[in-house]
Amino acid sequence: MGTSVFDSELLMNAWSTEEMRGVFNDRARMQAWLDVEAALALVQADLGMIPQAAATEIAAKSNYDAIDMDLVLQHLKVTKHPLVPTVRALEAACEGDAGEYVHYGVTTQDVMDTGLVLQLRKATEIIRRDLKILAKDLMRLSEEHRNTPMMGRTLSLQALPVTFGFKTAIWLSEIDRHLERLDEMEKRVFVGSIVGAVGTKASFGPKADEMEKAVNDRLGLGTPTISWQAARDGFFELGSTLGGINATLNKIGNQLLLLAHNEFDEIAEPFGKGQVGSSTMPHKRNPAVTENSVTVSNTLKSNINILSDITKHEHERDGAVWKMEWKVLPEICLMLSVVLDNLKFVFADIEVKKDSMLKNLNLLRGYALAERVMFALSDKMGKQTAHEEVYSAAMHGIESDITFREALLANAEIREAISEAELDALLDPTTYVGSAPDLADHAVAQTRAGGRI
Q1: Sequence-distant contacts of 15-18: CB under 8 A, at least 24 apart
Q2: pLDDT digits (tens, 9 = 90+) for 107-145
Q3: Quick one: which of 139, 239, 338, 340 is 20 to 30 A from 194 by CA?
Q4: pLDDT digits (tens, 9 = 90+) for 169-213
Q5: Which residues are the signal sequence here (predicted)?
Q6: What's the confidence (pLDDT) of residue 62?
Q7: Of 64-68, 142-146, 320-324, which range is least confident?
């Protein structure tokens, strides 16, 4: 296959993926650094630390389009430094002696960390928005299919009936909890860093604390209690939270693939006119978009495994560890946006095959209702006795290749304890979904009440 899973035409409605790329491209990254430099200069001028005219000029030129990129690349080849070329290009862009006050007192990590936080805040907003879109579709499905019976499965095998709305309501609640986690972590993760070379603010003088808070306020970020240059638990928390979201979406995608198997045939993703499932098998309508979401989601997990390593900085700064974040965190955001775009497409117009669900409910010819029959008999012969008699009938029936009804009626003790009419009512799988519809309603109501969607 000639295209990457990230560039595949299968992405269909990949508007968020493109938007996420815009958050993490070279232009956006450099602009985030320049935004920090501009805020720093303006605040320092307000506090009398640098001339007001210099700050005005620095802020005016802290724009990607005002920077000489050829000069940046030239300095990059010589300095081998991630930020200095941009700082020098900003200095060169400023008129008069304003360039002398660029990057006044801060260290590279201040600017790059704070710039990355600005990018990650934008990325998280995209992810939050897409989760809400997905959650709204799951809410709709939970309401529409609260009473749509289907077989529940445990340990890969048929267990007891549930409803499709019950299943989607579980997914909905899980996503709502992830949205809650995103909200709760903001105060810990989206904070700036204006603390100088080793975090002591030594280069800023007595106005250091006031300056740091004012810069962060201007950028819309929180101010940390103390330097986090060597404390990366915030980024670890963000990556872990996004990893948890990915784990949920991976689970959902995998379940959709299973339910789409011809042998189950209980759901189908949208399949447009002209779409091709196979180059050689004309009949195929592959769940390609769902499959793509799972492929990217599986790949994303490798970045989650690296997260614990970003916390083990040596001393006050560790470049070998620090620079891992520049790869890991943007990739997590980019790949998660692909997964979300894929699943948004699927759930916007998913086909729920009620007839297939009903057919599969009867696949075991009544044996899946053994629990129900057992409890009905418990009132007549005691629970343990009922279990033994139903078990005996079930094993005999399966080995004899007869229906569960036939097996039960062949058992004298059971036949004496229950009428055929009562037994027929018990063996209707559509009436043994427990509180699934009410539980789906409750989950939807609780999600609405939470106000996150």
Answers
A1: 15/341, 16/126, 16/129, 16/130, 16/337, 16/340, 16/341, 16/344, 17/334, 17/337, 17/338, 17/341
A2: 999 999 999 999 999 999 999 999 999 999 999 999 999
A3: 239
A4: 999 999 999 999 999 999 999 999 999 999 999 999 999 999 999
A5: none
A6: 98
A7: 320-324
